[in-house]
Structure formats: C-alpha cells, structure tokens
Specification:
CATH superfamily of the largest domain: Histidine kinase-like ATPase, C-terminal domain
Strand order of the largest sheet: 7-8-9-11-10
Shape: elongated
Distance between the termini: 27 Å
CATH architecture of the largest domain: 2-Layer Sandwich
Helix content: 25-40%
CATH topology of the largest domain: Heat Shock Protein 90
CATH class of the largest domain: Alpha Beta
Number of domains: 2
Radius of gyration: 21 Å
Number of strands: 11
Structural class: alpha+beta
Largest sheet: 5 strands, antiparallel
Length: 286
C-alpha cells in the first residue's frame, strides 16, 4: 500500500529566509545584491514588508542595455506580480508555475506581507522528504540473486497530480526492500525513480513508469507525452534548463533531475522528440 501523506501547503515547503529590496534603491544596488547572494530575482517590499513588485535578472539586463542602472528599482520592477498565499497547496503552486511560466513566486500572509519565496525545487525536495525516498534501512538478511524471480511493476503518471506524486517511487522502494536487496541499491533506485516521476508530473502531459527487477539488475523505464527536450546533452548538465531565458532566470526549467538520475544509475539513456521523452535507467544488483 502507498502511505499517502497529506499534501503539504506552501508554508510547509517555502524558503523563509527571504532576500528582498526596497523600491527606492537603485537598479545597480539590486544587481550587486543579486550577484552577492547568488539569486536571480527578489521581491520588492515597503517598510512594512508588503509586496510591491518583483525585480529579476531580466530587468537588470534590460536596464544595463538602456544604460539605466541608476534608476530606482520601482521604475523597472514588475508591478502587480503573481504571488502565492502561504495556505495554498503545492498542487496549486505547481499549476501556477505552468500557467504563468514562472518557477519562483513570492509568498504572502493574510496581511499581504512577504513571508517566503517558493520554487519548484522547494516542492520537489520537500515531497521527497515527506515520502522518505532516500531513507532506506539495510535488511536483516540480504538475499542472494537466486532467492527471487523476475518482478515487474507498472504505474501511470498523471500530469500535475500531486496527490499521487511519488506513488511509483514509493512502491518501487517497497518492492525492492521486500526482496531483501541492499539498502544502497534500493536508495539509488528510489531516488532515480522519484526524479524521473516528478519530471513527468511537472513537465509532461502524461506518462507511465515500469520497473523490471531480475536477479541481476533493476531497469526503470519512464515514457511521457510532452514537449520533449530540445538538446539532451545540454539538459544533462547540472543546473542547465531547456526553458526560455526569461523562465530560467526565474528559477524554472525542464530537465530537472536528469543529472541526479544519471548519478544514481549504472546505465542511463534518454531519447526525446517534440512528442515526448523516454528514460531508461539501469542499476546493477550487487
């Protein structure tokens, strides 16, 4: 059985240590702050911490091109920005990511004061923690390969359905643990399956995952119908995104998790077309 966890709310997963800026500071000061903090955008707030707007790297670049770094932040910021409430569910938050093409949102409380920032990465990381994806105990008795026959698990994956997000990875983890495999092997498979599953949930239209376990290896295949990845080799680089420059600057992008999947696998192949993507992950059983 899948131990379904209550779907967390934005306040449960957001980053609370918010870096913000006042509207009467200059764009040059905003540029220096973002560079020093290693961020690509931040909320603009008044003295009461109420949200006034958002300034991003794209705004900074535009100001530089216009030789306008001495302008006030209020002159170049995005006004009336899209925001989330701390009581919103993460499912709603991800729907907002897809609808507005952003991956970073300011979060406000009932008084409209900024209390956090939420990114796609925050959500994926927190869900993995709730599902204890990477927490695996070593079995009391590790079985030899001859102790079990081939097992197959299959599961459909629904786009943007965070009630079921992590179901496939959790079930694979349970199956492998029940077979008495080493904890390190189970952990690698669970992490790879989770990242692949979340890619489908967030970026594709629909997909399916299958896992085949033989006495020699674990093969996880994930197929999705979606926009595909234009340049697979670039998408495999840590930190790279196939999203547009504007979206990437806001912290959102496709290709999330692919380097982690490759790191967890002994063999990893990926094929992608404008109609969808197929991942094949193989992990050898010691």
């Amino acid at each position: 059985m899948y131990d379904k966890q209550p779907l967390p709310r934005v306040q449960d997963v957001m980053t609370r240590d918010v870096i913000s800026i006042a509207p009467d500071l200059t764009v040059r000061q905003a540029k220096d702050l973002m560079r020093d903090k290693g961020i690509s955008g931040m909320p603009v707030v008044d003295r009461e911490n109420a949200l006034l707007g958002v300034i991003s790297v794209a705004d900074i670049i535009q100001a530089m091109e216009n030789n306008n770094l001495n302008a006030f932040v209020s002159e170049v910021m995005t006004v009336n920005p899209i925001f989330l409430h701390e009581q919103d569910t993460v499912g709603y938050a991800l729907q907002a990511c897809r609808r507005y093409k952003y991956g970073r949102f300011p979060v406000i409380d009932e008084q409209a004061k900024v209390v956090g920032v939420l990114t796609v990465g925050d959500i994926v990381t927190r869900l993995a923690q709730l599902l204890r994806i990477d927490q695996v105990d070593e079995p009391d008795e590790i079985k030899e390969p001859k102790d079990f026959t081939t097992r197959i698990y299959e599961c459909s994956i629904q786009s943007m359905n965070f009630d079921l997000a992590g179901l496939a990875a959790s079930n694979i983890k349970k199956m492998l643990t029940g077979l008495g495999l080493k904890g390190t092997t189970v952990r690698r498979a669970a992490i790879a399956a989770y990242d692949a599953e979340m890619n489908v949930v967030i970026h594709a239209y629909e997909g399916k995952l299958s896992a085949k376990v033989t006495p020699h290896d674990i093969t996880i295949t994930v197929e999705d119908s979606g926009p595909g990845i234009k340049d697979v080799s670039l998408a495999m680089q840590p930190g790279y995104s196939t999203a547009s420059d504007r979206i990437r600057e806001m912290g959102f992008g496709a290709g999330m998790g692919l380097p982690n999947i490759k790191k967890s696998a002994d063999e990893f192949t990926i094929e992608s077309t404008p109609k969808g993507t197929t991942l094949v992950i193989k992990i050898f059983i010691d």
